[in-house]
Amino acid sequence: MDLKTQELINKGEMLPLMEEFYTIQGEGAHTGTAAYFIRIGGCDVGCHWCDVKESWDANLHPPTDTDIIVANAKKYAETVVITGGEPLMWSLDYITNLLQENGIKTHIETSGAYDFSGKWDWFCLSPKKTKLPLDRAYEEADELKMIIHNKNDFQFAEEQAAKVGKKCKLFLQPEWSKKEKMTPMIIDYVMENPKWRISLQTHKYLNIP
Asked: Per residue in 4-16, is it b (16+ CB within 10 Å) or e — as a string?
């Protein structure tokens, strides 16, 4: 990669774009709403059940002019969700400022494991045991989305919930490959602990991206 491209990436004026698409939000507090998804490559958090492992290696995804990404989003949506990979590996100040200047709401889905950047209308924090969030992520979180893969994850979810603010909405979501086993357990858990809500990957049930 040449120095000029690297400098633009460092400024957030280019990003390693994996994919971008207009769809229906399938998870969490905004389930069922239309949004334009921008998936940025690069992640070293290493969740073994990740369903987009092809996003991990940023070198596989070409640096793309951020102005072009925003221009594409403007054609479709009033809300953009920036996800990954782990989007906070990159500076997101430039893209979020530009989106908001164009009247587009900015949402993020992140593990919170990297330094905070960007200007957000909605901050979805999904902590992972392998690389815990930084303090700023807990402070910013509007939504805590905990992936439940086994029984031990309920304890981890409670530990993470204790670190977010009172405004933060709490969600438990079954890991897709374990949904038959874990969903009934999540139902019981939420009924016993009603501060939590259930999130399902409804986009997969709907067979959409």
From this structure: eeeebbeebbbbb
pLDDT tens digits, one per residue of 78-101: 999 999 999 999 999 999 999 999
Question: 136 a known binding residue?
Answer: no
| DSSP 8-state assignment for residue 128 | B
CATH number for the domain that contains residue 119? 3.20.20.70
Is 68 among the annotated ligand-binding positions?
A: no
168 marked as binding residue: no
Domain membership of residue 123 as a residue range = 3-205
pTM of the model: 0.96
Distance between CA atoms of 67 and 137, rounded to whole angstroms?
Answer: 26
pLDDT over 90 at 47, yes or no: no
Question: Binding site annotation covers 124?
Answer: no
- Give the number of domains in the chain: 1
